[in-house]
């Protein structure tokens, strides 16, 4: 599965537009579910996980008109709690709002979740990151770049900001073997001095497209006779090491990187729902395929085993089906 540059209803997303969609009808059913004694959570989950994001936005608008200017999200918040509340409210956000909230979450509380922050930044396209940056200002009244600067330090700050503003400057039309060799040399030379120089690594890894970088990393492995992951492990430390490791693991295949992340953190509901919501309309089918190859178990059956109740129902609906 190749990286998807924009949302499109081919075969890579698991959540598709619901056929014969009627926003007003859905809004009415949701209103009845919210007004029923104890709230009919099953109905809320069934409808909102079986509509795509654009359809959910239409439902929210119809609900607003229907419920005499009461907005849907506060009504859902009142009826829900815990992880299910977080999941359903996440589904009601636009994709750029959702990514903005994911980024904010990694910086809240004591200390920054560097791995979580990088996992979002490294798995989104330049355009998606621009949209998330705009949404971040609208949602929180603060600048994402400023928050990243205050939450990070030194070379790690430079790396994070370079990923946030990544521009793929190489030509995508043809394979530029000269530039590939030049980049391999630059990465290798940066490791050979007494003091390791992260600048060429930051520059190369954040200004080329993934196909070019896969060739560069493969060339570096041939030259050094070890995996790039091992090279990063032995030459860098701290946050910078985490940053470069996330980059080199995600460059060859984002779906594989996400499958590994799910496998290592399957009990962390926040992380699982973050990946499933974020990728449900993009490439979650590819993630499922990689998960199956990696673990010899389907993501669907793993979720069935690890989660219960409405949370299980919601996650399974996003995952969509079993992989045999």
Automatic annotation (TrEMBL):
One of its GO terms (cellular component) is vesicle membrane. Keywords: Annexin, Repeat. Transmembrane segments: none annotated. SUPFAM superfamilies: Annexin (SSF47874). GO terms for molecular function: calcium ion binding; calcium-dependent phospholipid binding; phosphatidylserine binding. PROSITE patterns: ANNEXIN_2. SMART domains: ANX (SM00335). The keyword DNA-binding does not apply. PANTHER family: ANNEXIN (PTHR10502:SF8). Belongs to the annexin family. This is Annexin. It comes from Esox lucius.
